[in-house]
Design brief:
The chain is mostly helical. It has 16 helices and no strands. Helix 3 runs parallel beside helix 5 and helix 14 packs antiparallel against helix 15. It is globular, with a radius of gyration of 20 Å. The protein starts with 6 loop residues before the first helix and ends in a 9-residue tail after the last helix.
Length: about 325
């Protein structure tokens, strides 16, 4: 394509290479190819290749955990898709924005963006959009305490992924079902978590699946072994950004349940370190909440604690999040 001067051909090649790098967990290369594709596509009037470029650029941001800067990319994709009348690209943009707004603590907005792929993607044959629309919406329904809706989305995602034999997506659906079971107090949460571990054989989901099994385990030794395995993967492999977010989230919740304030702060520090290049409202809330709870647990309440807790209560109220804070 370079030899013949075909810009469209170069963009098509970069699009495919970006996805291939993403599948191989070569996340920086995934992002770089997508960025080059957008640079080439930006001045073009040709819509089809421009849509592809913005699609992988949004995905490349997500892979690296750069959720905030991905929002304008996916918003641009949505605008281009609507201008071009491309239903597939519109559905892709909707599920991307559904996933991204979760990390902005805009859960209701995320759910709204998830509705189009949930309602239409499977009917139009856009399987990946159908799976991810349901999966991302399930996350926000959990945050809003709407567990019945979260379960329905996770079950939809599982059904479609199993039909398409998409192993990683099946594993992720089991992670979601395990979370809903756990939050509803079901003793069966270990079953989907263990199934997720069996299926999760890639850096896209494996650490998160291990942490899901860890927090669901009744065995302290098994719990620590699984969390340690998740930590090793995060330290030694290039894992999709959501693993870093949710392994730490689950470690924080597990430490809270055990009253281990040091472990809670360690998980929060690791989450903060990963998100440092681009802090997100979701990560900032998790980190601040962990530190306030640790103070509460150590009975170190003072005026600073009171102010920090009040700030968290305000953040929770404005987002609609259903999550425990001291004083509840």
């Amino acid at each position: 394509a370079i030899k013949t001067g075909s810009v469209n051909g170069q963009i098509e090649s970069l699009y495919l290479r970006s996805y291939m790098h993403g599948q191989s967990s070569e996340l920086t290369e995934c992002y770089d190819c997508a960025e080059k594709a957008v640079e080439l596509a930006r001045p073009l009037n040709t819509t089809e290749v421009k849509l592809k470029a913005y699609e992988v650029y949004g995905a490349g941001h997500y892979q690296l955990g750069l959720m905030r800067s991905a929002i304008p990319v996916s918003t641009q994709l949505l605008e281009l898709a609507q201008e071009a009348g491309s239903k597939e690209a519109e559905l892709v943009a909707h599920y991307q924005l559904c996933g991204l707004y979760y990390y902005s603590n805009e859960f209701k907005k995320a759910v709204d963006f998830g509705q189009l792929p949930i309602q239409q993607a499977e009917r139009f044959g856009f399987i990946r959009a159908a799976i991810l629309g349901n999966e991302f919406a399930s996350r926000s329904f959990v945050a809003l305490g709407m567990y019945e809706e979260a379960r329905q989305c996770a079950e939809n995602s599982l059904r479609i992924a199993e039909t398409a034999s998409m192993r990683a997506r099946i594993a992720l659906a089991f992670v979601r079902l395990s979370e809903v079971d756990r939050l509803e107090g079901s003793p069966s949460s270990t079953i989907p978590a263990e199934r997720a571990v069996e299926l999760a054989d890639s850096a896209y989901i494996q650490p998160w699946a291990l942490a899901s099994a860890a927090i669901s385990s009744d065995s302290t030794s098994t719990k620590f072994e699984l969390f340690a395995a998740a930590d090793r993967l995060l330290e030694t492999q290039t894992c999709t950004g959501h693993n870093h977010f949710h392994v730490r989230e689950l470690q924080i919740e597990d430490a809270l349940a055990r009253g281990d304030w040091d472990a809670m702060e360690t998980a929060a520090e690791r989450l903060e370190a990963f998100a440092r290049p681009e802090p997100l409202p979701w990560t900032e809330f998790q980190v601040k909440r962990s530190r306030v709870i640790a103070k509460w647990g150590r009975k170190e309440q003072d005026e600073v604690y009171d102010s920090q807790l009040a700030g968290l209560v305000d953040m929770r109220r404005s987002s609609g999040m259903k999550i425990w804070l001291p004083g509840d």
